[in-house]
Amino acid sequence: MNILLLDGGKAFGHSHGGLNRTLHKKAKEVLTALGHNVQETVIDAGYDVEAEIEKFVWMDAVIWQMPGWWMHEPWTVKKYIDEVLTAGHGKLYQSDGRHRA
């Protein structure tokens, strides 16, 4: 299976994202040992939107590893979602879901 791992940890204040990074690395280790093909993105380190779209086309499953900030994802993860999924229109999805084709 082709699995995309997204590390949504964010270094912020007194938190340096260590737990999130550890869980992400462990997931990669276990999934690779089980024979899965794994690609990853560390969102806080930056990313290329077109390369991310290609990863979404390639993957069979995505695992989002991120902390909960006041019951939400960090702003960098929301930005990633907005940028990648908006740019992926026509390649990742055809309709915005507001009407039937």
UniProtKB/TrEMBL annotation:
Segments passing through the bilayer: none
Q: Which UniProt keywords apply?
A: FAD, Flavoprotein, Oxidoreductase
User: Which Enzyme Commission number(s) are listed?
Assistant: 1.6.5.10
InterPro entries listed in its UniProt record: Flavodoxin_fold, Flavoprotein-like_sf, NADPH-QR_MdaB
What Pfam family is a match, any one? Flavodoxin_2
The record's GO molecular-function terms, alphabetically, read: NADPH dehydrogenase (quinone) activity
Tell me which residues make up the Flavodoxin-like fold domain.
1-97
**At the top level of its lineage, which domain of life is listed?**
Bacteria
Indicate the family of this protein: Belongs to the oxidoreductase MdaB family.
Name assigned to this protein: Flavodoxin-like protein
Q: Which organism is it from?
A: Neisseria meningitidis serogroup B (strain ATCC 13091 / M2091)
Organism ancestry: Bacteria, Pseudomonadati, Pseudomonadota, Betaproteobacteria, Neisseriales
